[in-house]
Structures are given as structure tokens and as C-alpha cells.
Model the fold of this input.
Amino acid sequence: MLTRVLGHCHGQALRLVCVALYGVVLALPADANPSAESPVSIESIFPLAIPRCVSGTVPRRSVLIKPDGASVEIVEAGAPSQLLTLREGLLPEVHYLPDGRHVLLATRSGWVLRLDLALARLVTELRVGTVSNGSVLSAVRADASSLLAVANAEPHTLVVLDEQLKLIKLLRAADRMGRTTSPVAKVGIAKSRGSFIVSFSNMPELWEISYNPKSPEIALGLVHDFQYHEGSFVPGYLNPQRSTLPSPATDFLLSESGNEVMTAHAESGLLHPGAGVRIQVVHLDVRRKIAEFMAPGWPVPGATFAADVRCGP
Done:
């Protein structure tokens, strides 16, 4: 279910539009003005089709995960397709590497696989966990290798690998004090910010982890004077910046700009059709809530939203 809702943040109107990847926007009529605490009526939503541009190039070869969840079909224009049997429990994400020849896949049981599409064979595999919830590949950078982030439910870790499946960083999913750990619920990517976004099943935090080697240092705790570097700092590269949430986020969506994250907090702890969902919008620059409202449902997987904050009445 895709929804467009209107909320309010400190006297400013915040317009949110959920956009499916296939290019359909669901919008409220122009005269609609629901309150921030009132559910938005699905009956008031109507579809508006718009063209969408896809950046990048279409890969020469594509990979289709078969219904058995253990094999893939390699498809190439003008050539017979090839079937390759791999490990069971393949996750749906297929990550094409910049060379156009290799892809990375992950399994529910924590395996990461590197395939050579030209040879139609598995060339490398590495186990990074026992239960994984998903993976994302960093945006292509001219000055750095692509990085794969894998969200593990067991153990409670986020694992970052390079294109060759070499371990780059192992992040323990622990709170600020390091006392409580949690399964990693989801990992996403904010391409415009050059960062991974991470939520947790049992921990009320949202992490932003920059994969830009030149990202500025992160201050730990209070800083007396930034100019004179008075305080404790860690490198900004592959270390988390934390936003505190009221409760663990059951799911989240990134805005098209990548600067806002819409987090879902289901009253029952689970998202299901017809259930009311409390939604918060967190701005990653200020790392705090800028809007909160109730919605009648939650968008389908793979959606995004556009946030337009306007000053005035």
C-alpha cells in the first residue's frame, strides 16, 4: 500500500509522497489537509502516473533468482540462458558490480556469493553470519571500490565487504553505551549522501554509516570546542552516526533526496495490512524527528518518498 500523507513539523508543512520503483505516485487531492495525528483515508488517494528515469546502464547480462530460492538464471541477449545452482535461501537483492561481469548475492543463512557471469560460475563465497536480513551495495565511486553491507540478525552485526569479499569492517549492533545489542533489521543506502542507513529490531536507534573515506570525524558525546578539537572523535568512514528513536523501527523508507528517513513504528510491533502505523520522519542532518503522524498502512517494499518542507502556514 502506497500512501501520500501530510504532516506538520514545528509550524512547517511537510509533504510526503511515497513513490514505487515502477513509477507511480499516489497523491492526495490538493485541498486535502489531514492533521498530523489523524489517519489518512486511503479512499482519498488517487494514482498519478509519471515517467521515471533510471540512472546508470542496463547490464549486458542479468541474473534472475528462480522460485526454488537456490538457483539463478543468467540471461544474455542473443545467447542461451544458463542455469546455476547455488545455496538455498537466496535473498532477493542482486548486486551488479561496476565491471559488468560479476554480481554479489547473499543468502538468508549468512553466505555472500560472488558470481562470474561470463563463465557462469561461483568464484568466491564467504559466510558472514548465521541469519541475514538483507544487503545493499554502495554507489559507484571513481576513487573507491564498491562496498557491500550485510545486515545480520544473528549474530548482531553489520558486515562490510569489498568487491572481492574481503572483510573491511565488522560493526557490532550495540547501543551508545555498548550494553545492549540487537538484530539488524534492515540496511538501506542514501546514495546522495554516500552512506548506509541501518535500523534494528530491538534497539531504538537509526544509524547512518558513511562509506566516503573523506567523511569528517564523528564526535562522541559532548564537545567543548570543535575548532580546537576538544573532545573525543572517531573517523567518519564506516563508523555510525546515531539518531535516537522512540521505539525500534519496524521498517523505514528513504526520501528521494536521501536526507530524510521515514520510520515505521507499529503499535503491535508488526506491520500488516489494515494496521495503524505511527510514522516518524528523521532528518539525517540534524539527527532528530521533524514530523510524526499516524498512517493507515505502510508502503510496499522498494518504495521511496519525496519530502518537501515548506515554511509558513
